[in-house]
Amino acid sequence: MGSSRRINQTVLAYIAGFLDGDGCIKARIDKQLNNKFGWRTRIAVTFTQHTKNQRVLDWIQKQLQVGTIADYSSKHMSEYAITDSKFIERLLLNLKPYVVNKTKQLDLALQLLALKDRFKNETSFKKAWELAMEIRSLNNYPKKISLSNPVTTFSRRNVGTNGQ
């Protein structure tokens, strides 16, 4: 997965099951002033667990050898987050045969990550935006996104967000 290291299929199946239950394939939409369109779309993969069970997140991180773990003591939660796009693309391709519940998010994320020119090409940018919004609509987390005064030539209307 990481560099040349291969992860055995049993471990991949376990991680996929954990992703289905306590994980999330997130689509992030962030302002980025130095981007041609003023925005960027990114995929993140996260796993959460009560802090007392953080050892399972440590174990997954040790298997994948990428990402960071953060503790949120006020919520008694720990989160393992992976944000490296190239790694996420390889990870999702390897987890795909084992994912049951989040197959739609996984497929949409792979489509978004395949748009390598989304930071430069208007058509790809719009498609990536639409895919990100679709992923966000499938997830059960707050849909906060600040679209006021975007530093871009696009409005919500012409990037396919249905006014969300």
Number of strands: 4
Which strand-content bin applies to the residues? 15-25%
Number of helices: 5
What composes the largest sheet? 4 strands, antiparallel
Structural class by secondary-structure content: alpha+beta
Rounded Rg: 17 Å
Distance between the termini: 36 Å
Order of helices and strands: HEEHEEHHH
Give the strand line-up of the largest sheet: 1-2-4-3
Average pLDDT across residues? Answer: 85
Spans of at least 5 consecutive residues with low confidence: 146-164
Per the principal axes of the C-alpha atoms, what is the gross shape?
A: globular
Helix share bin: 25-40%
What would you say about this model in short?
This protein has 164 residues and is α+β, with helices and mostly antiparallel strands. It contains 5 helices and 4 strands; from the N terminus they run H-E-E-H-E-E-H-H-H. The chain has a 4-stranded antiparallel β-sheet with strand order 1-2-4-3.
Descriptive labels:
40% helix, 4 strands, globular, 164 residues, disordered C terminus, four-stranded antiparallel beta sheet, single chain, alpha+beta
Walkthrough of the structure:
By secondary structure, the protein is of the alpha+beta class. Helices cover 40% and strands 20% of the residues. It contains 5 helices and 4 strands; from the N terminus they run αββαββααα. Strands 1-2-4-3 form a 4-stranded antiparallel β-sheet. A hairpin with a 7-residue loop joins strand 1 and strand 2 (39-50). The longest helix is centred in the last third of the chain and has 17 residues, at 122-138. The chain is globular, with a radius of gyration of 17 Å. Mean pLDDT is 85; it is low at 146-164.
